[in-house]
Design the sequence.
């Protein structure tokens, strides 16, 4: 199990990307309320980062918190920041500072100092993993979702699928259209000639 | 190394990699009568010799058509996108069969490639257009005409068909026409226009819309428009009759059927062995490692064919210490992709299509196209929601859209990574969103390259390092294409248009790193190492003018097989 430090930080990130949305819930139905926190996407992020070619969950959490500190300083505050205490939009601003190389390299975990390209790779990956974790079947693995991939089983339809009205995998759809191309202005592509 | 004059060969030909190109060479040569061993780094799905391909070593090799098992394929290909396509732990990833082990490392970007019998065609969309003729003629050492008979041969074998129309394609055609593009007929395109998709997917059963056509117990041959090209197609009564024609189900079964081909999955080649003789340096064998046990093996053959793809082929060349050549690994083209998505109101769709949504998870993942020779290509794209959201909304070089000031001059409304409430609001309209994937005819530039890290290695050698920076003109072209895509969506009636603006370090069409005319000759034999051939995307001399590259690589691979036969085996028979 990862420390609550790592978990809190990654949860703050995932929440900034996919928050709970009461306004959408009010307008379009209760299902639209739930977000990354409800689907435990922080646990997905930890799983992915720990299975990166080198385990990355802890250094990534540190990276995000260093960025939070840098952002606070840029706003005239002092002291150590943590991503989780920033407002969601400010979390994204902090991450943006990392991408724009506005954070002192020497303040970062050693693995990023040795390979600064990894900063971009990991921040891009975080966006991507958050989305894949949330909108794919992953949360539907329920109680088995943190087991090795071969041992997981689908237990229920993910909330996210309901939000986007994805019915889940199917063996086929009756959606063949009897479409006819407009042949009045055919171009013979090879010659660029009209016929 | 011990030099044996009358070497005992293990086989006639060794093919490295069972992907888009390697499988073609293997089948073509085996059919002519050569004995072929294919070494593939990844697992083999749908084969009785590997009943649990991700959790057990299984057998060493299979050479028997009867080993193919559609039931096992259906068991492995679960249609679940994270299970199949997660880049870290998925079944389709650049990594070993054992999913408890991490993926293999590359530096310099995110590479969307897959290890396994079938290679990256296991999750490709199967778009199979020709090259743009004027991108070859006078630029490549061979003409477009020279390739046409090989295109035809591969098209017949795969086979390649005009793609069916589902609502998302119809909407695209409607927009293309409204935006003023002309309709083109296939297949040789030299002027801009939109056309029916052309892909390596078996035709849809004409009864599909009939409510009595039983989709649950369907045992017929043909695509069922279920939208899982990218997650691994398993629709069909046998492996060889599966609808989407990855080489796993097309060329590999044909290779096995000859009785002359043996395929070893979980076999990562780490070195090409050579020998100096009268004919100069020539290839004689390979060293490979079993990815489960780490054990090393040597194999010897009269001809070696590299087909590990645009990154691993130059890596293997460099790690093998083969002769220096200023173009090895250089000249990488990547088509620098982007997406533009349009969200539509129900009423607008109703008026155009007679239905109130397009459900991007239905129909083939990509089945309509618009090519602009010299600039690039647009194709429709729709699939399951995770990958869809990832490609359309969070893959961007532009940072978070919520922090960007929208450009009032731009043809789109939103640009960058979509997050927060806006992301959920857009995804809520997933069913009414048409996505266009576009890619640029990027220039060959020697500074764009695949090299190896001087220090970092994994168990298979120094790891590959990719450097890719598009040129000024590539950027102009891509902005142009994105504008055209947005205009098309707007013409079709889209309410909100989102441009992702992908970063260049996302690699999907990895081409021209071992270019014909520079590293290999007109027959795809290495200039500096006889009996060593290349048959993957790396031998393309350029990015073929913009269209999807695989069919061109496959046509070339079929031609290379003929050349190998003529050069080294014809006389023996
Ligand atoms: C999502 C997606 C959609 C795509 N859609 C299309 C499309 O519609 N049309 C199109 O034309 N292209 C498409 N592509 C690109 C297409 O997949 C590639 O162009 C094509 O597969 C490249 O063929 P290749 O032979 O160069 O390499 P691959 O198909 O990647 O095959 C290389 C094989 O070699 C193996 N290998 C590598 N190194 C070694 C080694 N040292 N030892 C042993 N084995 C090794 C690999 O494991 C792999 O199986 C798509 C790609 C993606 C990711």
Sequence:
């Amino acid at each position: 199990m990862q420390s609550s430090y790592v978990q809190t930080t990654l949860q703050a990130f995932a929440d900034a990307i996919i928050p709970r949305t009461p306004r959408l819930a009010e307008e379009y139905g209760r299902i639209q309320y739930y977000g990354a926190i409800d689907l435990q996407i922080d646990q997905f992020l930890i799983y992915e980062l720990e299975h990166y070619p080198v385990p990355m969950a802890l250094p990534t959490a540190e990276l995000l918190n260093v960025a939070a500190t840098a952002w606070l300083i840029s706003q005239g505050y002092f002291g150590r920041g943590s991503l989780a205490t920033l407002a969601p939009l400010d979390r994204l601003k902090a991450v943006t500072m990392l991408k724009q190389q506005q954070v002192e390299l020497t303040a970062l975990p050693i693995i990023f100092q040795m390979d600064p390209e990894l900063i971009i790779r990991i921040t891009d990956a975080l966006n991507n993993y958050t989305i894949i974790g949330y909108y794919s079947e992953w949360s539907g693995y329920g109680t088995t979702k943190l087991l090795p991939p071969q041992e997981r089983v689908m237990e229920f339809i993910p909330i996210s699928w309901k939000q986007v009205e994805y019915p889940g995998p199917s063996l086929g759809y009756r959606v063949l259209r009897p479409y006819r191309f407009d042949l009045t202005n055919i171009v013979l592509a090879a010659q660029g000639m009209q016929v | 190394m011990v030099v044996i004059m009358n070497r005992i060969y293990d086989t006639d030909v060794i093919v490295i990699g069972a992907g888009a190109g390697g499988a073609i060479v293997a089948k073509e040569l085996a059919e002519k009568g050569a004995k072929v061993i294919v070494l593939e780094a990844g697992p083999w799905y749908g084969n009785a010799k590997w009943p649990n391909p991700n959790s057990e070593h299984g057998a060493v090799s299979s050479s028997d058509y009867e080993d193919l098992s559609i039931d096992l394929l259906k068991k492995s290909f679960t249609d679940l996108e994270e299970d199949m396509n997660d880049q870290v732990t998925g079944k389709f990833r650049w990594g070993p069969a054992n999913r408890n082990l991490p993926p293999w490392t590359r530096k310099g970007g995110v590479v969307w490639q897959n290890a396994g019998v079938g290679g990256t065609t296991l999750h490709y969309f199967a778009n199979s257009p020709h090259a743009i003729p004027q991108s070859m003629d006078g630029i490549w050492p061979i003409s477009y005409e020279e390739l046409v008979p090989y295109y035809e041969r591969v098209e017949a074998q795969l086979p390649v068909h005009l793609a069916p129309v589902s609502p998302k394609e119809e909407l695209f055609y409607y927009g293309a026409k409204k935006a003023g593009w002309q309709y083109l007929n296939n297949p040789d395109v030299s002027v801009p226009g939109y056309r029916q998709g052309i892909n390596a997917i078996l035709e849809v059963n004409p009864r599909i819309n009939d409510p009595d056509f039983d989709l649950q117990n369907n045992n017929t041959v043909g695509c069922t428009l279920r939208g899982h090209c990218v997650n691994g197609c398993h629709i069909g009564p046998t492996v060889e009759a599966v609808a989407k024609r990855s080489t796993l189900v097309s060329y590999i079964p044909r290779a096995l059927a000859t009785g002359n081909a043996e395929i070893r999955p979980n076999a990562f080649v780490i070195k090409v062995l050579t020998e100096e003789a009268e004919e100069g340096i020539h290839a004689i064998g390979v060293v490979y490692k079993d990815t489960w046990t780490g054990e090393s093996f040597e194999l010897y053959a009269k001809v070696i064919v590299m087909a590990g793809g645009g990154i691993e082929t130059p890596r293997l060349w460099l790690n093998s210490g083969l002769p220096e050549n200023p173009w090895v690994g250089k000249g990488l083209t990547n088509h620098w992709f982007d997406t533009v998505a349009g969200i539509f109101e129900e009423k607008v769709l109703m008026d155009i299509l007679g239905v109130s949504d397009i459900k991007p998870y239905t129909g083939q993942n990509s089945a309509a196209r618009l090519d602009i020779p010299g600039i690039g290509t647009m194709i429709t794209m729709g699939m399951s929601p995770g990958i869809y959201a990832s490609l359309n909304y969070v893959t961007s070089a532009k940072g978070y859209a919520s922090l960007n000031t929208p450009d009032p001059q731009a043809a789109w409304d939103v640009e960058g990574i979509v997050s927060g409430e806006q992301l959920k609001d857009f995804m809520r309209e997933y069913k009414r969103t048409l996505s266009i994937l576009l890619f640029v005819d990027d220039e060959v530039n020697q500074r764009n390259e695949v090299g190896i890290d001087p220090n970092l290695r994994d168990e298979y050698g120094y790891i590959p390092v990719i450097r890719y920076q598009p040129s000024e003109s590539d950027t102009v072209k891509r902005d142009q294409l994105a504008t055209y895509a947005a205009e098309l969506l707007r013409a079709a009636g889209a309410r909100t248009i989102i441009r992702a603006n992908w970063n260049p370090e996302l690699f999907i069409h990895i081409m021209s790193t071992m270019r014909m005319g520079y590293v290999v000759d007109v027959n795809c034999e290495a200039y500096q190492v006889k009996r060593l051939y290349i048959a993957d995307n790396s031998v393309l001399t350029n990015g073929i003018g913009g269209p999807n590259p695989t069919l061109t690589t496959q046509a070339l691979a079929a031609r290379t097989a003929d050349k190998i036969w003529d050069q080294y085996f014809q006389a023996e028979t």
Q: What stands out?
A: The CA atoms of residues 29 and 114 of chain A lie 48 Å apart. Chain A has eight helices and two strands. The longest strand of chain A covers residues 187-188.
